[in-house]
């Protein structure tokens, strides 16, 4: 598949009356290029020109010519262009062929990006978001986030102007929280009280918030906002009106829901096994998860222990690992919240500290529990022929953040997550 990066541009200069096997040469070249899998080609009909015979050809009424100049432009990867040259060079018996280097900034078409990029943000944002003031205690901020789908709170003043935003990272780095919110909500009441006791009681929202905060407007095009989200590696933006007052939040999850609703199967109906088998056999149309899969997949085996799990998380700077069985099939997945929720209460403080500080304390943890004990057994997977919008709908329906991509033999070949799918919905790598 053609992606951004170095490419080649092939230019063919022909005459409109040139023929090949009794038909038009330029149409024959187009058919040849399409059949060979070239990304695309464009035919341009010139207003006037002259070639090797020095005859000027023009489309003016006074000297109307039936042999106007034709230019075919082909842009693709160097390997594909090399193949194209070998196919069309023998077909051009009179004309000119040139080749030069190009930088491909973006290649996309409607099948490749199901995102409704021209629609305003207001159609997809979450309205009336929960907010805090700059004097709200940090402990209260944590309590507001526990058990919620959202992972950030905007900080606003008395006129509802956005002063900043508080995310998981702010709570960990500046608020004294020992583990991420997702981990905290898996703890029991006593352990949760212990976690909250670590939060710096004297600090307020205004002291730990990220500021200034990037905002977007309700009438901004969704495509521009997604591009900004990808460029900044952000997951969400506050949405403001023309007076810069907060009226909503637009998150990665909101955008993926829009893509699933408009371009995928209805998320209310989970795909049965028969549909997944059908997807494996279906011809590939448009962009599939095989085109965007990330092949580096942190993994352990079912009999590996807790230390091996943490080592993989730390080595890949990841909050999850895939668990493989003895035959190499995906058996489950472990997130950092699984680690904390499923280990014995007496070693949870060590696990929390390991995850929060990214320091591996192997002494008390080695041999305590295996990956089989920790994993969520219902790993979400899909065949590589699954379309991007369909994969998004499947993940949202199952409430998952990542999807294991499997080959025709059901062996994992990599993984896609929400960020990868968001980029794919816009036609980005």
Plain-language structure description:
With 429 residues, this protein is an alpha+beta fold. The chain folds into three domains: 5-104, Alpha-Beta Plaits (2-Layer Sandwich), CATH 3.30.70.120; 121-259, CBS-domain (Roll); 264-425, Roll (CBS-domain), CATH 3.10.580. It has 17 helices and 20 strands. Strand 16 and strand 17 (330-335) form a beta hairpin. It is flat and about 85 Å long. Residues 264-276 and 278-285 have low confidence and may be disordered.
CATH-level-2 architecture of the largest domain:
Roll
The count of β-strands is 20
CATH superfamily annotation of the largest domain: CBS-domain
Arrangement of strands in the largest sheet: 4-7-1-8
Residue stretches low in confidence (pLDDT < 50, at least 5 long) are 264-276, 278-285
What is the typical, i.e. mean, pLDDT?
83
% residues in beta strands:
15-25%
What are the salient characteristics of this protein?
Alpha-Beta Plaits, CBS-domain, alpha+beta, 17 helices, four-stranded antiparallel β-sheet, single chain, 429 residues, four-stranded mixed β-sheet
Give me the secondary-structure topology.
Layout: E1 5-15, E2 19-20, E3 23-24, H1 25-35, E4 41-45, E5 48-49, E6 57-58, E7 69-76, H2 78-88, E8 96-104, E9 126-127, H3 138-145, E10 152-156, E11 162-167, H4 168-173, H5 181-184, H6 189-197, H7 205-208, E12 216-217, H8 222-232, E13 236-240, E14 246-251, H9 252-263, H10 273-281, E15 299-301, H11 306-315, E16 320-324, E17 330-335, H12 336-342, H13 348-357, H14 362-365, H15 371-374, E18 381-383, H16 388-398, E19 402-406, E20 412-417, H17 418-425
Parallel strand pairs: 12-13, 15-16, 18-19
Antiparallel strand pairs: 1-7, 1-8, 2-3, 4-7, 5-6, 9-14, 10-11, 13-14, 16-17, 19-20
């Amino acid at each position: 598949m053609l992606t951004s990066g170095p490419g080649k541009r092939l230019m063919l200069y022909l005459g409109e009356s040139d023929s090949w096997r009794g038909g038009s040469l330029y149409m024959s070249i187009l058919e040849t290029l399409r059949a060979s899998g070239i990304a695309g080609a464009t035919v341009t009909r010139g207003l006037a020109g002259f070639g090797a015979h020095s005859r000027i050809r023009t489309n003016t009424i006074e000297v109307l010519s039936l042999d106007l100049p034709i230019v075919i432009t082909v842009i693709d990867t160097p390997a594909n262009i090399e193949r194209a040259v070998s196919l069309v060079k023998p077909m051009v018996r009179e004309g000119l062929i040139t080749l030069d280097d190009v930088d491909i900034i973006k290649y996309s078409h409607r099948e490749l990006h199901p995102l409704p990029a021209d629609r305003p943000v207001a159609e997809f944002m979450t309205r009336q978001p929960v907010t805090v003031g700059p004097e709200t205690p940090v402990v209260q901020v944590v309590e507001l986030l526990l058990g919620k789908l959202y992972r950030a709170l905007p900080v606003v003043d008395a006129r509802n102007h956005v002063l900043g935003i508080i995310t998981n990272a702010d709570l960990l780095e500046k608020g004294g929280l020992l583990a991420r919110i997702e981990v905290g909500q898996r703890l029991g009441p006593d352990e949760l009280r212990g976690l909250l006791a670590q939060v710096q009681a004297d600090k307020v929202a205004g002291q730990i918030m990220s500021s200034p905060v990037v905002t977007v407007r309700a009438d901004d095009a969704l495509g521009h906002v997604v591009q900004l989200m990808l460029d900044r590696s952000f997951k969400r933006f506050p949405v403001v009106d023309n007076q810069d007052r907060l009226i909503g939040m637009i998150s990665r999850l909101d955008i993926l829901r829009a893509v699933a609703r408009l371009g995928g199967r209805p998320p209310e109906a989970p795909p049965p096994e028969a549909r997944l088998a059908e997807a494996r056999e279906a011809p590939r149309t448009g962009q599939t998860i095989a085109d965007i899969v990330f092949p580096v997949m942190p993994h352990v085996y079912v009999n590996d222990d807790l230390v091996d799990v943490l080592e993989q998380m730390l080595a890949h700077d990841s909050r999850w690992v895939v668990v493989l069985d003895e035959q190499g099939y995906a058996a489950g997945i472990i997130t950092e919240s699984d680690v904390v929720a499923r280990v014995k209460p007496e070693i949870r403080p060590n696990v929390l500290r390991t995850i929060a500080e990214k320091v591996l304390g192997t002494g008390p943890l080695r041999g305590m529990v295996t990956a089989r004990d920790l994993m969520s057994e219902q790993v979400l997977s899909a065949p590589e022929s699954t379309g991007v919008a369909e994969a998004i709908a499947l993940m949202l329906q199952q409430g998952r953040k990542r999807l294991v991509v499997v080959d025709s033999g059901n062996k994992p070949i990599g993984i896609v997550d929400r960020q990868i799918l968001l980029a794919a919905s816009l036609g980005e790598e």
